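Example 3.2
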Amino acid sequence: MDPELEAFIPLVPLPDFSDPVTERKKLAERVAAGPAPDITGLEIEDRMVPADPDVPVRIYRPRQAQGAVIWLHGGGCVMGDLDTEHPWASRIAQVSGAVVISVAYRLAPENPFPAALDDAFAVLAWAAAQAGEVGVEPDRIAVAGHSGGGGLAAALALRARDQGGPPIRFQLLHQPGLDDRQETWSARHFTDTPSSNRHNVTTSWGHYLGSTPASTPYAVAARAEDLSGLPPAFIATAEFDPNRDEDIAYALRLLQAGVPVELHQWPGTFHGSQVIASAEVSKRQIAELGDVLRRALAPGKS
């Protein structure tokens, strides 16, 4: 473990996804008690995207914004909202220089698959159709997310490919949850790691899938048989994370399907450890996310 991160492990909460309502309240309290994020230079607006039901979003517009990012928060698809994601979404907007559209998708277990994916797709379609109003070009939109949101972003890319759009220029998958089977070495051995463990991964997948067979298209990205024709991808993994090996396997499958992929495995880190923003490795991770999105959304890049 990175020594800077290790010192903070006793302070890192381990949520219990078997009680999502309580954990949502705890998360909201922790974020509210934390320092306010730096929003210098950002224009921030709350909107409702027309859908069935409408989807709340929070839009972060930096000055001279370059492209847009549909941002899907973490939390195992069972917790998180616009307010709890506010510090992270504003940081992504700051470091990337892109318009960030943070999505308050519906949460499981009250709203299992495909509710969250339907919400994400509605926001993607709206952003592409209303690109002028949002302030971006319709061919410069990326999908991105952390943890459960990263899994949603991967599924969103699959669905957009199969339905003929809207076009996605890039997918950024940060420590994504991609495979419910948990058969990899990291999933079987990292049963008591900080921030995320096997129990929570199992529980969150159960909440999200509900009665849906895991093999249903778009429910579990790693179960998709054909990964060809997907947008270029950046996948970041943490060394001590149950998701690590399924993410690496997905990156290899994308490569074998002819999809350009950048894979960064961060040694000494754990799932979500970048929230310890003072650590040097976290600073490097956050800066890289910004650099990756800037390059991917640069004018003229295809």
